[in-house]
């Protein structure tokens, strides 16, 4: 039985609310502190939530609510920019199925579920420092306020302040040579399968999309660009300017050309360069510990970022539930998670690299893809172990550690 009774969770995105719900289920009172002054509204960007992530949400009673704002994705279709099919494959045959959804919708639903379960979310609380003592940790925020608890959980994203408090020498995110943009078009791609994700290897860049029941098309684009562009820098560039650039990049590609022609500037979001985390040497220190993108942000190409964040939130709570002392709980948590998440990080980087292949590589892909999908790229073989992973909330953590994590 844990001796921990209270926790500060830094970050109100995806990992934060789930961590707070899981901690409450483990008997730990948790308060979420979000840096932004209010809930942000808008479409945001698209993401997928894999079956393992949905199953982990069931541990905190949030799976059904999230399914209500997502679309089931049962297969993937890969095409070239001319409309020719390169390959198609069913997703891993497991329930629940992968969901396609908007990040803002996912974050909103998770906050609502957390608050319904009694979690307090405090806004405009940007962490600047934390002081540890023998009996707790004191967080200091930019507005001059403070808060204290038995432990502090950093769920504060890829530029985590908590990560640098734990280890001032912690690595920074790695910038990948691709820009990430997304949006919604007032246009439904003709004859598109409503339960399929479409990946288009265009002449100059990569384009992904799915159609929505409301007649819109949700899309994202990865454009090669070796100049690092932060989110702040990308946000300063007028959306109309981004849209003009994308229309030029995809001028010769279908259906990207048509989708972008029906996208208005207010329906576009520019994220900047794709980033991922390298291996983080220290996941915890003293009374502080990391979850989600703060410690293991994979490339969006992995399709596992949100799902891994949810899993880690649940596993951390289980470890704190089953261990009386923080060092033992944190050690068990890292042992459960590190190997699994770093395997996904490597796969994500490999997948991202395929989005920058040149004309010769695309021709080879077109020739080899059908055979590859039947053999070494078979979804059951490559993604099955990831997506079939399930957390047994009621089982002792020691049982899982004894057999090893997937």
TrEMBL record:
Domain FAD-binding: 7-347
Keywords: Monooxygenase, Oxidoreductase
Record has Cell inner membrane as a keyword: no
UniProt keyword tRNA processing present: no
Listed InterPro entries: FAD-bd (IPR002938), FAD-dep_Monooxygenase_BioMet (IPR050493), FAD/NAD-bd_sf (IPR036188)
Listed Pfam families: FAD_binding_3
Protein name: FAD-dependent oxidoreductase
